[in-house]
Amino acid sequence: MSTRNRVKYIHEGKYVAEVTVELIEDASAWSPYLSLGDAEKLEDVREALARGDVLSASKQARVFTLQPVAASR
Question: Would you give the DSSP letter of residue 8?
């Protein structure tokens, strides 16, 4: 069994969170997969962003705001 760090992005409303999680790789058919703790962390960040609670989300992830870009031709 081995692990590797990966960044997962969560987009909710006008926010995007960059969450670092650990992927677990082994010989099973489910590989690679997240630990229960990392899956819960992703869900906690998503719920915090949905509530607009950037402070809580930023304790577990890097949080960015999205702004529309006016495209001109």
Answer: E
The pTM score is 0.86
**Cα 16 to Cα 56: distance, rounded to the nearest angstrom:** 14
Over residues 30-55, the pLDDT tens digits come to 889 999 999 999 999 999 999 999 99
- CA distance linking residue 26 with residue 24, whole number of Å: 7
Query: What would the DSSP string read from start to end of 14-42?
Result: TEEEEEEEEEEE-SSTT-SEE-HHHHHHH
Number of domains in the chain: 1
Domain extent, residue 42, equals 2-65
Instruction: Return the H-helix or E-strand segment holding 69.
Output: none
Is 40 part of any domain? yes
Task: Evaluate if residue 3 carries a pLDDT over 80.
Answer: yes
